[in-house]
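User: Okay, second chain of the day. Same drill as before: sequence in, structure tokens out.
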Amino acid sequence: MSGTSTIGEAAIQAGCKYYFGYPITPQNALPEYMAQRLSEVPGGVFLQAESEIAAINMLLGASVAGARAMTSSSSPGISLKQEGISYMAGQELPAVIVNVMRGGPGLGTIYPAQSDYFQSTRGGGHGDYRTVVLAPDSVQELADMTALAFDLADNYRTPVIVLADGVLAQMMEPVRIPSRKRKKLPAKNYILTGAKGRPSRIIHSFTMDPKEQEDHNWKLVRKYKQIEQREVRYESFLLEDAEMVVVAYGTAARIAKGAIKRLRKENLKVGMIRPITLWPFPTKIIQETVKYIHDFFVFEMSAGQMIEDVRLSLEGKGRIHFYGRPGGVIPAPVELYRIISRHYYQSKRKKGR
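Assistant: Same drill. Structure tokens below.
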């Protein structure tokens, strides 16, 4: 299946019955898939909203009513959704938001990039909040991470972002879709379904009481700390004897893995740490690795955004090398192989001194 079809089918199998979206390249094949498939699902609703702002607020409304619901967009469209995402974080409402990234600020370009790292991992909107950010690197992981996103959203009552790009969205690979029967959906004792026979409930994100707002913000912080303790995910690749570690995610990690295999054939000892959760970021494995490996090579299809989290994780230890291709250029593994090998030998020479 293609990446977009996989996201859609995995969402439906995870119990998603409601999709609200608006067209924007390169994610358009996802709402197209959902329009067709949800018509076959009993009670399924596909709605093309009049704007991204309308779509995110429809998602909020469906979540308030207890539904598993999803929206998707690409970079400029996600910017328009940020206010609604902030509202859902403040109201502690679960939701899944898929971002198929494109390159550059403004309208930029429709080509694949990883330019939305800051937007996704720093909350994106106003207020003290975080969103869980999942970064698959294959069509199979798109299926697995989409299913996981709905579970995390419900378990922690928080918006979850699945971060992909045009390469992952459009490529086709063999995939096994997780079954809907794998897990019973959690009870939701906070939703608004009518108050007959019980006290009324209120879901809001506004208060005139500063102390009440502060207490709520600290409650969110405690939840985010739980997520940081429990939900970090990453892949390590050939770290055992490595002398340099590449840190890359998503499509960039696929490219990096091809480059590393080529480097290994020449006995250049390079490994990789691939963050799967961009937030919470896998800080601990980087802190453990820098005890015996001192060179970290950050590769992104951007001008360099994840490099800040790597630097924070290192806490002043080790050396950081960087290579980026912003704007939609997709480098081949051989290009990255040449860049890494140059930095590898330069680092060797410095150690020799």
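The first helix runs from residue 3 to 13.

User: Thanks, on to the next one.
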